[in-house]
Amino acid sequence: LVCEWGDCEQTFSLHSCFSEFRAHVEGHIRTLLPSYSSQHSTDPIPRDFECPWRECGWLNPKDTDELIRHFLFHVVHTRLKTTGRVRLESGKFNKCVLEAVSRNLVPDVPEKFLCEWMDCNLQFNCPSRFYEHVESHVMSVDKERIVNGGRKTTHVTCQWTGCMTRVRNHCKLREHAHVHTREKVYACHVCGGMFASMSKFADHLSRQNTSECKYHTLHCAFLVKRELKTLSVSYMNNIKCEFCDMTCPNPSALKQHIKFRHSTLRPYVCDVCDYRWAFQVL
C-alpha cells in the first residue's frame, strides 16, 4: 500500500497494516481539516481546493463530509488496486493496456454510507469502516436449521431491510452483502477500474487481448487486417455504464442494462396483486 498524498510515498503491508495506512491518510486529512476526528470535521472546505492525491484532480466537494468520504475512498481504492496488482503478478492474466490517466479517479460519494441492516441505520463517512461494520452484522447472524426433502440443512438469512435472501453459510452471506453495500473487491492498478468479483476483474483483462479473439487469431489466413480489427473490437465490451462498473459491447446492450438494473420504472402490473415488473413476462 503506497500513500500518494502529495509527495508522500510511505508504504504499508497490504495484509497486516491496512488500519495503519488508513490512520496515516487521516493524519494527512488533519493537515487540511485540523478538527477532523471520528470521520467528521467542523472546518470549512479549504479555499481553491484540489484533491492532493496524485493524478486525481477532484475539485468540487459540496461539503466537508463529502470531502472526507472522497479522501477515505482513496484509501479503499489503493487497497483494491494493490490486491489486483498482486493477483496480476501471479502471471495468470493479461495485462491491462488501457490508459493510466484514470488510475486514481474514484467515484463521487454525495451521500453517507447507510447501514440498513435490521434496526441499525448507522451512517459512515469512511467506506472501509462501513464495510467492516456490515461484515460484523453478517458474522453475527445465527444459523437456522431446516428440513428439505428429509435432509437437515443449515442456512443464514440476510437481514438487510427488504431482503430475505438465504445462503448456505456466512461466507456466502458476506459475498451477498456486497450487493447492498456496493463494495468492490478488486481494482485494476493500471486504469483504476473497480470490480465486484475476481471473475469480473479477469474479464476486464481478458477482453483487452486483441491479439486473439473468440473466433480467429492473427495467424488466420482468411481474415484481412481490417476484418480482424473489426471483429476484435466488437468482441470487447468498451461502452461503460455511467451508473456502475458494467461494460457493454454496444449502445443497445447498454440501454437494456440500464433499463433492467438502474431504472425505477415498473410499467407492467400483475393481474392478481399490485406487484410491478420492469419488463413483460409472457
TrEMBL record:
InterPro entries listed in its UniProt record: Znf_C2H2_sf, Znf_C2H2_type, ZnF_E-box_Homeobox
Domain C2H2-type: 239-267
Keyword Plastid: no
Location in the cell: Nucleus
This protein's record includes keyword Transmembrane helix: no
Gene3D superfamilies: Classic Zinc Finger (3.30.160.60)
Record's keyword terms, sorted: DNA-binding, Metal-binding, Nucleus, Repeat, Zinc, Zinc-finger
Superkingdom to which the source organism belongs: Eukaryota
Example GO biological process: negative regulation of DNA-templated transcription
GO cellular component: nucleus
Bilayer-spanning residue ranges: none
MF terms (GO), sorted A to Z: DNA-binding transcription factor activity, RNA polymerase II-specific; RNA polymerase II cis-regulatory region sequence-specific DNA binding; zinc ion binding
The protein's name in its UniProt record: C2H2-type domain-containing protein
Lineage: Eukaryota, Metazoa, Cnidaria, Anthozoa, Hexacorallia
